[in-house]
Amino acid sequence: MVREFSAGGVVLRRMSGAWSIAVIEPQKDESAPVKSPFSSSRKASGKTVLALPKGLVDPGEKPEQTALREVHEETGITATLIGKLADSKYVYVRSWGDGQRVFKIVSFFLLRYQSGRIDDVSPPMRVEVRRALWLPLDEASAQLAYGGERQVVRKAQEYLKSHPEV
Q: In the chain, what are the domain boundaries?
C-alpha cells in the first residue's frame, strides 16, 4: 500500500467577537471514476463539501511549513503557527492514474490569521479549490464533510478553552 503524508491548518480569526476558521470547498472532479475523500466538492446528496486546507508535504519541507503554504495557496491568507493539533489517518483509493489504495496521514496545525483576503486564490489553484470562506468555529463540527477534520476542529475548540490568551 502506498503511503502519503500531508499537512493542513485550522486557521483561527476573531471576527465580530466570535472565532471563525478558514475552510475550502474543493473543486468538483467530474472525471473521477472512484470516489476519494477529496475528489468531489459535493456529496451524492448534492450537499456542499467543506474541508480544511491541506496538501502533500514536499521533499525537504517540514509539515508545519506545508500547512502554512497550503493555507496560503488554497485560501489566499497568511497565518502564523500556534502549534500542532493532531494527526488524521485514513485509507482511500486514488481516483486517478493507478487507482491504488493509499494510507494517508495528515498532520493538522493550529494557526492564527495574519493577513490577506479569504478566497484570493490564484487561477491555477482554482483547479483544486472552488472557493474559500470563513466559517464560524461553533458551526464547523457540523458543516465539515470529513470526520477526522471535525475531530481536529473539536481539538482546536478545546485548545481555545484552555488558552483564552490566543
A: 2-162
At the second CATH level, the architecture of 2-162 is: Alpha-Beta Complex (3.90)
Sole residue written with cell 473521477: 32
Q: What is the Cα–Cα distance from 149 to 59, expressed in whole angstroms?
A: 24
To which H or E segment does residue 72 belong?
Answer: helix 63-75
Q: Model pTM greater than 0.90?
A: no
pLDDT digits (tens, 9 = 90+) for 56-94: 999 999 999 999 999 999 999 999 999 999 999 999 998
Distance CA 154, CA 8 (A): 15
Helix (H) or strand (E) holding 5: strand 2-15
Contact 157, 137 (CB under 8 A): yes
The pLDDT-based confidence of 46 (bands split at 50, 70, 90) is low
Please list the residues that pair with 105 across neighbouring strands. 5, 89
